[in-house]
Amino acid sequence: MKKSPAERNQENSVEDIFRSGFEGAETAPPSRIWENLDRELDNRELNRYRKQVFWYRSVAAACLLLLLSGGLFVWQYSSQTPPSIAASSGATSAGGNVRPGQQASETQIQDKSSVKENLPATPSVSGPLLAKQAENAPQQPVEGFEAEQVNAPILKSEASYAVKPTQRKTAGTAANLIAGTEDKVGSKALAVTVEDRSRESLNGKIEEKSILLDAGSSSAIAMATLTGDSSTVKQPTILLAQKKPELPGVPVEVETGKKEEKQASGLGKWSVGLAYTPQYAYSPVKIGQEPGTASSSSKMAPNQMQLSNQYQEAIDEYNNSYTPGYSYSATVGASYKLSDKWQLESGFLYSQNEATTQHTLVLSSIHSGAMENYVGMLPPAKIEPIFSAATASAGSEVVSISRTEQYSVKYKYQQVGVPVRVAFRQDLNKFYAFLSGGFNLNFLLKNSIEADNSRIEAVQYSYQDSESPYRTWQWALATSAGVGYHVNKKMSLIFGPEATYSLSPMVKDDKYKAKNYQVGMSVGARWHLSGK
Amino acid sequence: MKSAVAGKREAQHQLYQRYAGKMLAVSKRYARTDFEAEDILQDAFIKVFTYLQNFKGECPIEFWIKRIVINTALKHQRSNRHLTVTEHEEEWDEVSEQDCLDSQYGYEELLDLVRELPPRYQAVFNLYAIEGFSHKEIGEMLDITESTSKSQYSRARASLRQSLTRLTSQYHEKVTG
Lengths: 532, 177
Description:
The structure holds two protein chains of two kinds. By secondary structure, chain A is of the alpha+beta class.
């Protein structure tokens, strides 16, 4: 049924009456509502922190478990090392100067070299005897005998000491000469240098051992001493063959060296480490008026001129008072040995940079009916257009700058990253020097700016914040140098300066071009998975 | 705003102080008692602070908060089982076409009239006449059909008109007699 105009008016009036009666109505809430809200928000915050603590503790427990498992694995692995390796290591270490931190295979070769080096020509064979001989008879070279003739390889073969016929002959000649003079105790000694070369197939390297023997009676005695029979002069082959048992570890070393090399090539090249670097982080965002954004002074009204001057003062306050605070980075990573001196390092990095500025001016703008406070530096990409526009034209957004008690603004910049570096290492006995360089790929977690003035609202940007003026991803060059100290076979401590220079600016707006750098002292530890 | 999002209590308090008065008036329209209205307000603001980070500024924040208050109020009614379908509907006296309604009523008087309505009618009337939702939207919010929303609104309006007429008569009696 159609309604009359009066009815329609009456229908509308019901809605109008209630709408006009309820419009803009406000009722002051009792204070207990906010008290309840406050309490509830505190409880929620506490629950949130509890959850965070739970997760942090879980992660810490997982890391600890991982470290313990890794340590247990390494300990078990090292305790299962064959005893022959230990014996040979003991032999080599006794005979030579074993340098830590080198690959097992190379160590063996070096050990043999060191054995070679540490077997002095005279003392190792006939030192005490020579001393005796010196007392008994002067030593003179045998006439017609060329020492060079004897300088021929006597031994040649893998893990055996077979002698070439020519060499044997040569050696035999020497031996005969020696034998000929053996009875002449006190006769002139003939210095014979016998080189024996043992060619081993270990990595295709050939080692040379030089054993200097004094010919003549002294050498005969020495040889006899070596052979265990003073009445018989035996061929050098016999001597050297008998040398075999005297160095029982040598052939074993060849075999176990291969085995050790295989094992070391896998696990031995890896080490894990962690480092903590307190650092000085210099990362300001310099701001200043863009040319042309503010009108020339001649066009400005007096109040705008004053505003412009105060704004410039606020900018100067920020630019001049920037002070880096306590910053640090922590790294957990692994390194892989490319060679004896070079290694590749990578891992995960967390860094936190802090800085402060001091201000006496508060910049405010009235926007959409609400007072919003800005500090002169943040966010720079947003601040400058506002105040440039305010000083440029009359009737624009109302802006005020007021002086207040000095307050500080704290900037906190947190990021995680992946460092990739190449390091060079030079061993120096228990110490070693290192130099590394590479790059970091950093990811901004959070950037917060807080003032200790209640009129200034804090600002926080995270990686999810699309309005953030700060770059989420950054590239940086990193270099470090320092000293390491081997605590034991498995662990070493490192200490040294570290510097990082960012290749990409902090803020998205290229015009600010603030590239930051950090300089710090790194302290860390490294665990070698193979124990060497 | 950003401080409130960051969880700074002072900023949250400022936000609460700015809008709590208006929102309490809104929640009173949906509640049966002032106590219930305060509960609704408290729960609503907890949600406001919890989800403030999701507010992107597509609409005025007052409207966003109001929407939260309304949803919280409707949820309260559902949990209190106020929105049960009444089997026996009241019969309203027909109002004469000549009845005129005085438009000068105070907030508290109008509030009392709205609270006299059955809970479902109260919600439908508030959502349609005051908040401006369509019957289709009301149907989705209250999980009823559009036609049910229309009929319930019609009944609510009729009831309120009757109440207003009675109120006007009482007022005239006071004035004249």
